[in-house]
UniProtKB/TrEMBL annotation:
Localization annotation: Cell membrane
UniProt keyword Transmembrane, yes or no: yes
Family under the similarity heading: Belongs to the MreD family.
Sections of the chain in a coiled coil: none
Full protein name: Uncharacterized protein
Membrane topology: Multi-pass membrane protein
Bilayer-crossing regions: 22-42, 54-76, 82-100, 112-135, 141-162
Subcellular location, principal: membrane
GO cellular component: plasma membrane
Keywords assigned: Cell membrane, Cell shape, Membrane, Transmembrane, Transmembrane helix
GO process terms (BP): regulation of cell shape
Length: 172
């Protein structure tokens, strides 16, 4: 192989390594913007794509998403969702730290156990939102919609997990 082709191959390889390292953060930002800005005004019953991707990338590529991205996305979620500022950043960062702690266990589990753990964490996240809404005396918040959003998020998660799995396999 001549040196020019080797140089081109090195640049392509570096590009894909860079893209693989920013893919989790980029997917979190893009899906948050799509779900909060474009889909939320249409219907309050949309899945929480941010939380689904947070869970997936927290297990499969934990070093690729900095805490600052989670904090900024959480503030974005709070400002558009009507929660007190700091609710979602706290939930996102606490979930991330829990996932980092339990990553070794979850990474080796089969899909159904992975999904079950996700369901448990989504219910905990929903409970935390209810507690914050209760203590803030936000009487206008409909808890039925929150419960349905939790169910829809759990039901949608396998499609997102499989899509992320297929994408991450392309880069390995």
């Amino acid at each position: 192989m001549n040196p020019i082709n080797m140089l081109k191959a090195a640049h392509v390889s570096n590009f894909w390594r860079l893209f693989e390292s920013i893919l989790p953060s980029l997917s979190l930002v893009i899906m948050s913007i799509i779900s909060l800005v474009f889909l939320a005004p249409l219907s309050p019953l949309i899945p929480d794509f941010t939380y689904i991707l947070l869970f997936y990338w927290g297990i499969h590529m934990p070093g690729a998403v900095p805490l600052s991205i989670l904090f900024i996305l959480g503030l974005f979620q709070d400002s558009l969702g009507g929660f007190y500022l700091g609710t979602h950043p706290l939930i996102n960062i606490a979930t991330w730290l829990l996932l980092l702690n339990e990553r070794r266990y979850l990474y080796s589990q089969n899909f159904y156990q992975f999904w079950a753990m996700f369901a448990v964490l989504v219910f905990i996240q929903g409970f935390l939102k209810i507690v914050v809404a209760y203590f803030s005396q936000n009487a206008s918040y409909d808890f039925t919609i929150l419960f349905l959003q939790v169910i829809i998020t759990i039901a949608t998660a396998p499609l997102v997990f499989l899509s992320c799995n297929a994408i991450s396999r392309k880069f390995k």
